[in-house]
Amino acid sequence: MTLIVLERFERINFAAKEQSGRLYIEQVWPAVLGSAQVREQQTASPAQTDGALMNGAKAFNAEQALAAFQSASGDSARLSTGRALITAVADGSNLTLDPDLDSFYAMDAITVRLPALLESAAGLHKAISTGAGASEIAVALDRVKATNDAAKGSLNAAIGASKPGEGQASLQSQLARLDPVTQALIRQGELAMTGAPVDITPAHAAFATEMQTIWSATSAELGRLLDNRIQGFYRELAVNLGIVLAILALATWFAIYVARGLRKREEADAKSIFNLKAMASAMDQSQARIEFDLDGAILEANENFLNTMGYSAGEVVGRKHVIFVDPAYARSPEYAGFWQRLRAGEAISDVFTRFAKGGRKVIIQARYTPLMGEDGKPYRVVKYASDITAAEIAREESEAERAQRAQEQAAVVTSLASALSSLSEGNLQSQISETFPAD
Fold first, then answer.
1. Each residue of 330-354: pLDDT tens digit?
2. C-alpha 341, offset from chain centre
3. Cβ-based neighbours of 17, under 8 Å, separated by 6 or more
4. Has residue 163 got a pLDDT over 50?
5. Which burial class, exposed, middle or buried, applies to 309 when counting CB atoms under 10 A from its CB (0-12, 13-18, 19+)?
6. Alpha-carbon span 218 to 337, nearest angstrom
7. Residue burial 37-74, b: 16+ Cβ < 10 Å; e: rest
8. Which residue from 161, 184, 195, 205 has the least number of CB within 10 angstroms?
9. 283, 384 in Cβ contact below 8 A?
């Protein structure tokens, strides 16, 4: 119960810190955006505002970033230090470590992509307003396009990862608002590159207004997702605690049941062990068994195996499996792959051709089975095999005989066909000179 409570509250606190980071960024975003109304409100009670902001920044280890933002002068410096402050708060509040895709991409939009787009738009506004050259305007324009694509990418990803409903509709609405105002800025920039006089201020003002709406709505959606996650953790905690209590009650009854049934269980286990040993003994008596390490070194072999292959135990233990196979096959990639599969834990069953002592050919039906250790990894290979040499030889002889009979029959058919064809052409003196099998 303690572990469950601690683990769930760790997740709750993690998400709650994300939420507090988001709320803090909401406080500073209007100032980053450049809202004149917000700056006037902050000027009305600067001590109170600065104190609240500094206390929040300490919680996220963002004091230096806040100080740099508050001391920045000029739009360019305010934007760059504002982005740095947002990034510092996102890092310090766990927002950048958000574990869910839908909330992660919403977080990415409000802490990285939209602030970057805002800064690039300001750069384009400055380049055009100050009469910069075409190359400088082109660079600023490319930044706007790139950051716009990145912002749309995050919003699209958040939409794709979210469940259908109010939140998805809200993000789709913000995505629909973003592109038109950005494209208006881009068109102004493209016009300015031609050398035509351009007043980009109205388009930039409209962009800033829409950016406030888009950012706030996306932040609100992120807040909703975080609230839902926190509530879900509380529900999981309640359910899990209920399950634990039920398990504790069941465990009390089960302890009594186990105590009563322990003797029967031990007797059943002993009987099972006896049966397994009997089965293993029976298999040893009826089948050849040999065991290897993972490199193919022979560890032990039973009498059936030794008799089948004509070796004594001393002649095989410690040697490699390769002594039983054709030398050409032993050097082949197939043989290396055979042992690689066994080392990977794969059991292999097939008919194999092996060579006994003195080079005698032996055909076996065998299964190589890797034995797994407690760590789930193979530690040795055991093979059980049956000698089917006689049956295979008989089968091969039977197949050879059938092939010979088929060949003889084909010769008979060919000879008859030729003679009958000659007759059909009117040659009544045609004869069959070949010797046919008696039957």
1. 999 999 999 999 999 999 999 999 9
2. 24
3. 93, 94
4. yes
5. buried
6. 55
7. ebeeebeeeeeebeeebeebbeebebbebbebbbebee
8. 195
9. yes
Q: Residue 45 has which token pair?
A: 């009670």
As given in the structure block, the two tokens for residue 170 are: 């809200």
Match 């109304």 to its residue by tokens: 37
- Compute CA distances 38 → 45, 46, 65, 201, 286, whole Å: 11, 12, 20, 20, 91
Residue type, 366: A
Structure-token pair, residue 70: 């508050």
Can you give the length of the chain in residues?
439
Q: Give backbone dihedrals phi and psi of 317, rounded to 5 degrees, phi first.
A: -60, 130
pLDDT at residue number 46:
41
Q: Is the pLDDT of residue 37 over 50?
A: no
Q: Are 304 and 280 in contact (CB under 8 A)?
A: no
Give the mean pLDDT of 120-136: 89
Q: What is the pLDDT of residues 375-424, one digit of tens each?
A: 999 999 999 999 888 888 888 888 888 988 888 899 899 989 999 999 99
What is the set of domains in the chain, with CATH numbers? 2-242 (no CATH), 287-387 (3.30.450.20)
Average pLDDT value for the chain: 86
Q: Give residues with Cβ within 8 angstroms of 329, minimum separation 6.
A: 335
State the chain's maximal CA–CA distance in angstroms: 132
State residue 211 phi and psi, 5-degree precision: -60, -40
pLDDT, tens digit, for every residue of 201-228? 898 888 988 888 999 999 998 998 889 8
- Residue 36 CA to residue 39 CA, distance in Å, equals 5
User: Mind listing the pLDDT tens digit for each residue in 101-112?
Assistant: 888 998 999 999
Nearest to 321 by CA among 388, 392, 389, 380: 380
pLDDT at 36: 36
Which conformational region is residue 146 in: left (phi greater than 0), alpha (psi within -120 to 50 degrees), or beta? alpha
